[in-house]
Amino acid sequence: MSGAEVTRRALLVVNKKARNGGLDLEAVKGVLRRGGIEPVDPPPGETDCKALIHAHAATCDMVILGGGDGTLNAAAQALTEAQLPLGILPLGTANDLARSLGLPADPLEAAEVIASVPARPIDLGCVNGHYFFNVASIGFSADLAGELTADLKRRLGTVGYAVAAFRLLRRSRPFTVYIEHDGTVETVRTIQVSVGNGRHYGGGMTVEENATVDDGLLNFYSLEVAHWWRLLALLPALRRGTQGKAADVRAFQTTEVVLRTKKPRPVNTDGELTTYTPAHVRVLRQAVQVHAPPPAAPTGRPSIFP
Question: What local confidence, expressed as pLDDT, does residue 228 receive?
């Protein structure tokens, strides 16, 4: 075999249903092999990434996941249990974790990062025992996750988020949330509550402009707007992560928060509906090792993306 001597074996799991999951992987595998990594394909028909990670934990040195944020979300707990470093091929629609980590959008360039950049620790969020990388939300964002079909994401990409949001926006109504954090309890009327571990989420939104996925903190915000059209006015700030400066947005940092509602409401974690309120959210420090560039000083959207 030409190139670097193979010293590591990597379980390579690709979500074929992801927006770019049909990518021909031969060039990617070539990059990995030249970097000293031998990719191990799962058995045909095996698609459960959690089961695959556990099954290969003793024979592989790392896990490479190809897909979007939903794929990564599904593997988060297994990665922590197996204690295997993670490499990411951004093949999904939004690839918010890849953006938060400053990873290149091109799969070949992402493979180069996996092969050449050491893994570094990042945090995870945990809500009711469900792990997440980017954000946990209730309200508008959770409703949007139910509205945004896989077909819509595949056909329209990130534009699909805007289409689904427009359909949902005028139906949204404020609801009551009881927020327990840092020894206080607050009662608010809100359209959306979000608790972010990373910086980016939702196909172009930013939890907080200076957030990082390894700072040991959760960034909370609540959109306490009187009318749905106010969300349109807040959209530029939501994209930049500066919404916490608005008078009708409550924002703070914490390491643990409990959210209660009058009736159970679904919780969206990284685009997947995984649990219901009451929601106990906490940060798990340095829970996963990920091959990614060293963290840079926050400057908004990573420059590696257009």
Answer: 72
